[in-house]
């Protein structure tokens, strides 16, 4: 039983150390209507929010048209590929959606 638990822990520890996906900066470039300062602040807050979870540690996507963003993980060690993620709503007051005020 202990050996099985050890193997499972070692396997997940190995997967969590795999190379992660590319930066999200290209996605945030779509926010051209925001000042650079606001865009940088938004990115910082979203990256911090994604970093709060031990399983969804990276900012993967920002969908301004629907006022949401996605935190997740993508693993590819050459044999096994895995993707996980969860969508969150942008906070009230963030310029997004139809109005972008």
UniProtKB/TrEMBL annotation:
Cross-referenced InterPro entries: Salp15 (IPR021971)
Claim: tRNA-binding is one of the keywords in the record: no
Keyword Transferase listed: no
Domain of life: Eukaryota
Keyword annotations of the record: Glycoprotein, Secreted, Signal
Location, primary (coarse class): secreted
This protein's GO CC annotations: extracellular region
Segment forming the signal sequence: 1-21
Compartments where found: Secreted
Similarity comment text for this entry: Belongs to the salp15 family.
Protein name, entry field: Putative thrombospondin
Lineage: Eukaryota, Metazoa, Ecdysozoa, Arthropoda, Chelicerata
């Amino acid at each position: 039983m202990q050996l099985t638990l050890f193997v499972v822990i070692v396997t997940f520890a190995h997967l969590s150390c795999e190379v992660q996906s590319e930066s999200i900066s290209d996605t945030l470039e779509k926010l051209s209507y925001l000042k650079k300062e606001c865009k940088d602040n938004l990115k910082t807050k979203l990256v911090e929010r994604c970093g709060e979870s031990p399983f969804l540690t990276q900012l993967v996507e920002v969908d301004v048209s629907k006022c949401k963003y996605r935190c997740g993980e993508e693993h590819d060690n050459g044999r096994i590929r895995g993707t996980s993620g969860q969508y969150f709503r942008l906070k009230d007051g963030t310029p997004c959606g139809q109005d972008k005020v």
